[in-house]
Structures are given as C-alpha cells and as structure tokens.
C-alpha cells in the first residue's frame, strides 16, 4: 500500500483530485468508482473546481457508486443518488446516463444486486475507485464479518454505522436498516484504489488498517491484498499509527 501522509483535509482532497484528474486525462473512456459520506466532499469540490477552472471534462467519464440505502427512492433527500447529484454530478458536464448507482427500491433485491455486479463487469471495473473508511473498518457498506469474496449484496447496517450516519437524517430512526453495496471482491476488481481518511475519528481505523491482521473482522484490511492502493490520510488520522513510529 502506498501511503501519503498529508497535513490536513484540504491537502487530502487536493491530492486525491490530482490522482482522479490524472486518470481522466490519460484515458479516452475513464471509469471512476465513487463513494459517499463526508470524507470525499472536499475531493468533489476540488473536481468541480477542476472542471470550472482547469478545463477537465467529464463528457466521456462513466461512474459507478459503491452503495445505496435500501428503501430510499432516488428523489429522497438522503438517497446517495441525490447526494451524488447535489455534491458532484450536477456541477460537471457528465452525462446522467453514464452515472450508475444501485436502485434502492428495486425488487427483488437479489436481482438488483446481480444486475449491478454485471454492470460493474460490463462497463468497468473502475480504473480508479475512491473509498472512505468507516470507524469499524467498513468499506462501501461492507460491515465487519463480510467475506472477502463477496459481490454486490444487500446488507443489514451495523448500529454504529446507523449512528454515525444519523447526522444526515432528521432523526436516528430514519436511517435505513439496510443497504445495497458492492462487495469486497467487487471493490478489489478496480485497477487502482484511493482510500481517504481524515480526522482523529478515523485514527484507530487507520492504525488497524496498517498494523492489524487481514481478516473479515476489519473489512478494509483486505485492501492490503490489492496491488495498487494509495492511502491518503491527514495527520490527525495518522496520529495513532505515528505514535508507534509508523
Ligand atoms: O466519510 P464518512 O462520512 O466518515 O463515512 C465513512 C464511510 O461510511 C460510509 O458513508 C457508509 O457509512 C461510506 O460510504 C464511507 O466510506
């Protein structure tokens, strides 16, 4: 794993944007794997800036998102479909039909998971996948216990994840109990992975990622088996690992 230890959130975001833009400029039909959550918001602001002032076009870019809440319609304010439109897609020249996110309402859910995995294989896998990390080591919505060979599937969200994400909803009870997520194997299909971590809240997760064992108890640990992962983390996120000389 390559490690970029940066000063702060802004630097993490601009380093990540630099890697994404490099990928876009060197390919005729780039495929980006995208994430939600608060961590990539700064990256998305940088990409919008790159579109507005550095002339980076998304006309030929296709995107596949990691996950979507189960039971939320596309037009629900907390759906990841809305999140992506509001925080990125609506500010770029990307074509709507080139942006893919699981359908949180599709039934049966197993068919939607199979459709999404087939889509990843058909248009992708991603040339570059952006990831955040949960405090419990989840990537996408792959909670602890998820097997390494998992493909897109429906998950029951950990209470800690629902609690962490409650800040985006009017009340904690409104956080959906389930989600559709790319599996660990689906994520590892990507050519390159860029994992972002910022703030003291993520320090224990970064330490476990770098120093713990590779097993299902900490899903992000499987990233250590991938040949091209770059961790971009700021000083606060690194401080526990650093305290032990890492
Ligand atoms: O970036 P945040 O908001 O800390 O979330 C971390 C992770 O949790 C999720 O939002 C899912 O709960 C992921 O999409 C994200 O990578």
From TrEMBL:
E.C. code: 3.5.99.6
SUPFAM superfamilies: NagB/RpiA/CoA transferase-like
Record keyword Secreted present: no
CDD domains, per the entry: GlcN6P_deaminase
Keywords: Carbohydrate metabolism, Hydrolase, Plasmid
Associated pathway: Amino-sugar metabolism; N-acetylneuraminate degradation; D-fructose 6-phosphate from N-acetylneuraminate: step 5/5
GO MF terms, alphabetically ordered: glucosamine-6-phosphate deaminase activity; identical protein binding
Stored Pfam families: Glucosamine_iso
Gene3D superfamilies with a match to the protein in the record: 3.40.50.1360
Location of the Glucosamine/galactosamine-6-phosphate isomerase domain: 11-226
Gene Ontology annotations for the cellular component aspect, listed alphabetically: cytoplasm
Ranges in a coiled coil: none
Active site: 67 (proton acceptor), 136 (for ring-opening step), 138 (proton acceptor), 143 (for ring-opening step)
Catalytic activity entry: alpha-D-glucosamine 6-phosphate + H2O = beta-D-fructose 6-phosphate + NH4(+)
Presence of keyword rRNA processing: no
Biological process (GO), any one: N-acetylneuraminate catabolic process
Enzyme class: hydrolase
Family: Belongs to the glucosamine/galactosamine-6-phosphate isomerase family. NagB subfamily.
Stated role: Catalyzes the reversible isomerization-deamination of glucosamine 6-phosphate (GlcN6P) to form fructose 6-phosphate (Fru6P) and ammonium ion.
Protein name from the UniProt record: Glucosamine-6-phosphate deaminase
Originating gene: nagB
């Amino acid at each position: 794993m390559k490690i970029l230890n940066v000063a702060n959130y802004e630097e993490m975001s601009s380093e990540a944007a630099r890697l994404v833009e490099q990928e876009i400029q060197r390919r005729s039909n780039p495929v980006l794997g995208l994430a939600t959550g608060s961590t990539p918001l700064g990256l998305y602001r940088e990409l919008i800036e790159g579109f507005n002032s550095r002339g980076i076009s998304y006309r030929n870019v296709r995107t596949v998102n990691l996950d979507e809440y189960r039971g939320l319609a596309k037009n629900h304010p907390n759906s990841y479909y809305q999140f992506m439109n509001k925080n990125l897609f609506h500010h770029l020249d990307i074509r709507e039909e080139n942006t893919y996110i699981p359908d949180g309402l599709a039934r049966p859910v197993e068919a939607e998971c199979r459709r999404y995995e087939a889509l990843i294989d058909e248009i992708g896998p991603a040339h570059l996948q952006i990831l955040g990390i949960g405090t419990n080591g989840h990537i996408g919505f792959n909670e602890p216990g998820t097997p390494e060979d998992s493909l897109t599937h429906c998950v029951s969200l950990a209470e800690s994840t629902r609690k962490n994400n409650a800040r985006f909803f009017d009340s904690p009870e409104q956080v959906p109990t389930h989600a559709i997520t790319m599996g660990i194997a689906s994520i590892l299909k990507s050519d390159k992975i860029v994992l972002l971590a910022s703030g003291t809240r993520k320090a224990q997760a970064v330490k476990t990622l770098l120093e713990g064992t590779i097993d299902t108890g900490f899903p992000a640990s499987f990233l250590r088996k991938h040949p091209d992962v770059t961790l971009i983390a700021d000083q606060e996120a690194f401080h526990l690992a650093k305290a032990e000389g890492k």
